[in-house]
């Protein structure tokens, strides 16, 4: 054996947010094994809420240190804890905390959004039995913790191996979670399978990109690859192919066109609380990682990639906006709106300025909060069967007519989130879009900013259409309805808290954005 | 024994005799009682395809065992490099691997407590 | 034999895996295509490790194997669940979400 082995110094304090969340996942599995069924749910809920709050506090405690030093590299450079990584970790922890409230809520019907026994065949006697026995798949809590842990490592990865492992750690639980819906289980399972097959396909591309870049640079560390892009000559095809395949994997995760085909199906099929969690947190984490790759590795070869990236941005905005216009399912509309927002956030990424980083960090927070809130509201609007039994969610657009009259508060909050998505002033969405587009102008990507403004203007149409439908269209009389009756179920309180928190965030970030923007501007620097 | 490869050859020979001898011995001296199940094509615990599609029960246990096997079998890949470099890695390696093994034990405990190893 | 041959082989295997994913209809076979892509990457990594005289490529291959195993477990669970419901593992039958 040549060359001695020196144990790496591990600064555990720097890893605290990650360890708290992943540790809660491991403890959660043990809870599943040893805690009796009756109290399991409450124990899991308390554990996961505490863990995400603890992670948030740990992020806050690390903040001043990172601001002074600009960031540290931990575990021999595998984890880079710098400003953007820490901010994304904080965003993920905070949004996970809020999403957990929606996940845990069983509403007045006493049934959670998840299948009572995920292994039971849909429609079988065993499933009925499990439902009547009030079984619950409390495994969702540790699964969410593992996914959140992966999301916190993803943007902080200092080498491509760590990034790949984090990508899988965040993806695998999400594949399972999206197949666990209580109602419309076939749709849910179908969504899980699509998400899984396409996701695995995309990670294989990511991995082959890692392999090519390793061949190019002789290392998978991001700083070494960045250095090699300026020093190594004669291997450009290898590098370009590697970076391109790496980007395919990342663009898949954020749902950019042409790698978006899973988004509407999975958003529609997955249990709605999970859709909210996915829309908010996966997007934040994946944009964190994308930022790091683009800002650390790509700068010296940006001219080679610029046309492709620009095309992706414009296509993403166009497809997301235009296809959303013709959708009739609320969850699908929100999914296409998510694709359009991916395009808007990407303008901040391709700006390649430090204000671009700030805009992305702010955008994922503003968009994430509004997504969790809006999907939380979707969980409450339900169909009613002929015998008065509350069924699944009423997601068809026509079922939302007149909701503004019967449930004004709910409809007003829903409209607030829609207006934020549309980018109307005094909401967080406006500030987010404004910073993203101005960063694009500053970074010499004015055409993208113009395209973004046009797309936003078109998007206003379908957001406002829903608002008009809720407030100014008469609800059809009972006899005219094609679908089932619609009701709004009362939450156990947890969802209400989540909706209130996200609505508050949406307004506060829209009216007083400067403290948060300043904070994120201070953080907008990657360490190589 | 001048050539260091001779013992390896001997071992391969012994292994070959054991493997072939076992098969040959059971073919020669073992009892032969055929029935329908034995003559059917073996297909991973599923009923042979023509029967399975229409209905019948689906033995899910096979997959449970297969998944358990995959997890624990593959985790061993980390044990081999550690074993080879045991002295080199010293205390750090020991602690790290103990942590790793503990984490592997957690899902094992979960599966055991939830009845994943009970056949009926 | 030149090491570049291995790189060509790895790329070919990756391409075969990718076409399997895109062309085959059985979910299990599609999934096998993904596994082939991952293993092609392993070959690539190990070959580059040899070319650079650097061990990290081999270490990454180990990690990839473990991650692939975890993926198999999750993937089989999802596919088996769908199969039990529908008695079919064809990706074409999975079309309820088509709008």
From TrEMBL, chain A:
Transmembrane segments: 12-35, 47-66, 86-104, 140-157, 163-183, 195-217, 237-256, 277-302, 308-326, 333-354, 360-381, 409-436, 448-472, 493-512
InterPro entries linked to this entry: NADH-Q_OxRdtase_suN/2, ND/Mrp_TM
Keyword line: Cell membrane, Membrane, NAD, Oxidoreductase, Quinone, Translocase, Transmembrane, Transmembrane helix, Transport
Catalytic activity annotation: a quinone + NADH + 5 H(+)(in) = a quinol + NAD(+) + 4 H(+)(out)
Subcellular location field: Cell membrane; Endomembrane system; Membrane
Cellular component per GO, a single term: plasma membrane
EC id: 7.1.1.-
GO BP terms: ATP synthesis coupled electron transport
Broadest EC class assigned to this enzyme: translocase
Topology with respect to the bilayer: Multi-pass membrane protein
Occurrences of domain NADH:quinone oxidoreductase/Mrp antiporter transmembrane (ranges): 157-458
One Pfam family this sequence matches: Proton_antipo_M
Family affiliation: Belongs to the complex I subunit 2 family.
Record note on quaternary structure: NDH-1 is composed of 14 different subunits. Subunits NuoA, H, J, K, L, M, N constitute the membrane sector of the complex.
This protein's name: NADH-quinone oxidoreductase subunit N
The organism's taxonomic lineage, starting at the top: Bacteria, Bacillati, Actinomycetota, Actinomycetes, Micrococcales
TrEMBL record, chain B:
HAMAP family in the record: NDH1_NuoA
Protein name: NADH-quinone oxidoreductase subunit A
EC number of the protein: 7.1.1.-
Reactions this protein catalyses: a quinone + NADH + 5 H(+)(in) = a quinol + NAD(+) + 4 H(+)(out)
Predominant localisation class: membrane
Cleaved signal peptide residues: none
Matching InterPro entries: NAD(P)H_OxRDtase_bac/plastid, NADH_UbQ/plastoQ_OxRdtase_su3, NDAH_ubi_oxred_su3_sf
Keywords attached to this entry: Cell membrane, Membrane, NAD, Oxidoreductase, Quinone, Translocase, Transmembrane, Transmembrane helix, Transport
Species this protein is from: Pengzhenrongella frigida
Gene Ontology CC: one annotated term: NADH dehydrogenase complex
Subunit note: NDH-1 is composed of 14 different subunits. Subunits NuoA, H, J, K, L, M, N constitute the membrane sector of the complex.
Source organism, top-level taxon: Bacteria
Group of enzyme by EC: translocase
Automatic annotation (TrEMBL), chain C:
A GO cellular component entry from the record: plasma membrane
Uppermost EC category: translocase
TM region(s), chain numbering: 6-23, 28-48, 60-80
Membrane topology of the entry: Multi-pass membrane protein
Compartments in which it is found: Cell membrane; Membrane
Gene3D superfamilies for this protein: 1.10.287.3510
GO MF annotations, alphabetized: NADH dehydrogenase (quinone) (non-electrogenic) activity; quinone binding
GO BP, sorted A to Z: ATP synthesis coupled electron transport
Catalytic activity: a quinone + NADH + 5 H(+)(in) = a quinol + NAD(+) + 4 H(+)(out)
E.C. designation(s): 7.1.1.-
Family: Belongs to the complex I subunit 4L family.
Function per UniProt: NDH-1 shuttles electrons from NADH, via FMN and iron-sulfur (Fe-S) centers, to quinones in the respiratory chain. The immediate electron acceptor for the enzyme in this species is believed to be a menaquinone. Couples the redox reaction to proton translocation (for every two electrons transferred, four hydrogen ions are translocated across the cytoplasmic membrane), and thus conserves the redox energy in a proton gradient.
Subunit annotation: NDH-1 is composed of 14 different subunits. Subunits NuoA, H, J, K, L, M, N constitute the membrane sector of the complex.
Protein name: NADH-quinone oxidoreductase subunit K
Taxonomic source organism: Pengzhenrongella frigida
Lineage: Bacteria, Bacillati, Actinomycetota, Actinomycetes, Micrococcales
Name of the coding gene: nuoK
């Amino acid at each position: 054996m040549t060359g001695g082995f020196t144990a790496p110094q591990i600064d555990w304090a720097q890893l605290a947010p990650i360890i708290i969340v992943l540790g809660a996942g491991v403890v959660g599995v043990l809870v599943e094994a040893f805690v009796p069924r009756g109290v399991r749910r409450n124990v899991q809920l308390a554990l996961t809420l505490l863990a995400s709050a603890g992670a948030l506090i740990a992020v806050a405690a690390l903040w001043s240190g990172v601001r002074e030093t600009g960031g540290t590299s931990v575990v021999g450079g595998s984890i880079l804890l710098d400003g953007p990584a820490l901010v994304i970790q904080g965003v993920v922890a905070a949004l996970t905390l809020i999403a957990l409230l929606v996940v845990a809520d069983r509403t007045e019907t006493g049934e959670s959004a998840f299948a009572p026994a995920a292994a039971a065949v849909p429609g079988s006697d065993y499933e009925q039995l499990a439902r009547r026995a009030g079984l619950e798949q409390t495994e969702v809590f540790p699964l969410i913790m593992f996914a959140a842990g992966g999301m916190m490592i993803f943007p902080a990865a200092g080498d491509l191996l760590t990034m790949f492992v984090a990508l899988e750690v965040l993806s695998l639980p999400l594949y399972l979670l999206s197949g666990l819906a209580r109602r419309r289980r076939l749709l849910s399972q179908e969504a899980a399978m699509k998400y899984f097959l396409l996701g695995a396909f995309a990670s294989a591309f990511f991995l082959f990109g890692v392999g090519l870049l390793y061949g190019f640079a002789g290392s998978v560390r991001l700083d070494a690859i960045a250095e090699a892009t300026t020093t190594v000559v004669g291997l450009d095809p290898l590098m370009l192919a590697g970076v391109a395949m790496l980007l395919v994997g990342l663009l898949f995760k954020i749902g950019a066109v042409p790698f978006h085909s899973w988004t509407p199906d999975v958003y529609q099929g997955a249990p709605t609380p999970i859709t909210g969690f996915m829309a908010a947190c996966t997007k934040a984490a994946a944009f964190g990682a994308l930022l790091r790759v683009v800002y650390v590795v790509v700068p010296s070869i940006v001219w080679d990639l610029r046309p492709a990236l620009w095309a992706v941005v414009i296509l993403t905005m166009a497809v997301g906006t235009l296809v959303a216009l013709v959708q009739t399912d609320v969850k699908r509309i929100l999914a296409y709106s998510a694709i359009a927002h991916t395009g808007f956030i990407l303008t901040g990424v391709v700006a390649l300025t430090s204000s671009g980083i700030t805009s992305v960090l702010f955008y994922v927070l503003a968009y994430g909060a509004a997504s969790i809130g809006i999907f939380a509201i979707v969980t409450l609007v339900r169909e009613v069967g002929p015998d008065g039994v509350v069924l699944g969610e009423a997601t068809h657009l026509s079922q939302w007519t007149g909701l503004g009259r019967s449930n004004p508060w709910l409809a007003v909050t829903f409209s607030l989130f829609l207006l934020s998505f549309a980018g109307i002033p005094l909401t967080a969405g406006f500030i987010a879009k404004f910073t993203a587009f101005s960063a694009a102008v500053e970074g010499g990507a004015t055409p993208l900013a113009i395209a973004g403004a046009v797309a936003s203007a078109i998007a206003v149409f379908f957001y406002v259409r829903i608002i008009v439908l809720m407030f100014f269209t008469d609800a059809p009389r009972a006899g005219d309805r094609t679908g089932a009756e619609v009701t709004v179920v009362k939450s156990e309180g947890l969802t209400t808290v989540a909706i209130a928190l996200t609505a508050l965030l949406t307004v506060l970030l829209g009216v007083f954005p400067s403290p948060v923007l300043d904070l994120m501007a201070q953080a907008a620097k990657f360490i190589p | 024994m001048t050539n260091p490869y001779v013992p390896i050859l001997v071992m391969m020979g012994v292994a070959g005799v054991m493997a072939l001898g076992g098969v040959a011995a059971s073919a020669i001296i073992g009892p032969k009682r055929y029935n329908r199940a034995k003559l059917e094509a073996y297909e991973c615990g599923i009923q042979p395809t023509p029967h399975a599609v229409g209905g019948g029960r689906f033995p899910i246990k096979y997959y449970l065992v297969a998944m358990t096997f995959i997890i624990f079998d593959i985790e061993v890949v980390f044990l081999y490099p550690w074993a080879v470099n045991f002295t080199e890695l010293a205390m750090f390696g020991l602690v790290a691997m103990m942590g790793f093994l503990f984490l592997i034990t957690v899902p094992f405990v979960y599966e055991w407590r939830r009845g994943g190893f009970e056949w009926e | 034999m030149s090491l570049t041959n291995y790189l060509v082989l790895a790329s070919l295997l990756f391409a075969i895996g990718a076409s399997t994913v895109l062309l085959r209809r059985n979910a299990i076979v599609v999934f096998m295509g993904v596994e082939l892509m991952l293993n092609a990457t392993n070959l690539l990594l190990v070959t580059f490790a040899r070319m650079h005289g650097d061990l990290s490529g081999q270490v990454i291959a180990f990690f990839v194997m473990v991650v692939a195993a975890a993926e198999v477990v999750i993937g089989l669970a999802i596919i088996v669940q769908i199969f039990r419901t529908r008695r079919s593992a064809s990706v074409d039958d999975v079309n309820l979400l088509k709008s």
